[in-house]
Amino acid sequence: METPPEWTREKLLGLARAFQEARLLLTGAELDLFTRLAPRARTARDLAPELEADLRALTILLDALTAMGLLEKQDEAYRTEASAREMLTSDGANSVLPMVLHSAHLWERWGELTGKVAPPRGDGRSEEDRLRSFIGAMHVVGTPLATRLVKMIQPGEARRLLDVGGASGTYTLAFLEACPQMRATLFDRPAVVGMARERLEQEGVLDRVDLVAGDYNRDPLPTGHDLVFISAIIHQNTPAQNIELYLKAFEALDPGGRIVIRDHVLREDRIRPRHGALFAVNMLTADNGGNSYTFEEIRSGLGRAGFERIRIAHRDTGMDGLVEAFRPG
What we know:
Helices cover 46% and strands 19% of the residues. It is built from 13 helices and twelve strands.
């Protein structure tokens, strides 16, 4: 008798996301990228006109396929990985490309599986209920990470924290626990600020937190802080939106104050870490102009906003990259 699996949160989430790499392989096959890139290395700029492809989207796709090991990248040129050349090309001696393309057709049918079993239905919950569930889930997932990252950030003697897009206070709580002298400002949308109030009151720290409602893409940030924390936000933004955010953070800091950004931080080749390269595809499909960014891209944006002493405080191992910078004193 087969031994049943022992499920963990990590295994279940990994299974739920397994479709992402399969979809990347299928898209590469549908565009016949592996055949096109088998004879010689080519850049995305060279390949885009041939495919009538969007250059940004094609580059993100090629980097993700490289991160998976299906392509190789040198400088800005890509080539099909040696062992894959005869299996994923249209004229390969042992090509499995026809079967991969058949799987792409099956993808469409399998996408209708729920409706084959029963009519799809909503869960009957309001948008507010769904937002509350999402914020609650992010708190559960984020709490262990928040404690670890705050230790790495080493807030030291910081006394005034601004938690931008602070949700229900996951990181605010971790900072306040680590720094008894600290007072925090949590800035988020009005509906989310109400959830933060509930959690922070339940944790007994509401008297140490100022709750400010707003939209960081439209509104200025509250001023008078010596530490600004921006967590899992910059990947949702375009480079121009991030510069605007950094400028607002600069104004929110007192002279000498520090900004810390937590997010995916890609190496300069844009294919490492693997999870960051794959997450860039997630932002591509979201169609919001977001991306996974390299340290140099983050550094450049912070520099244009006026920050100095910009460095990587922790290399990314799973959306836990930390970049810090300072407003001149």
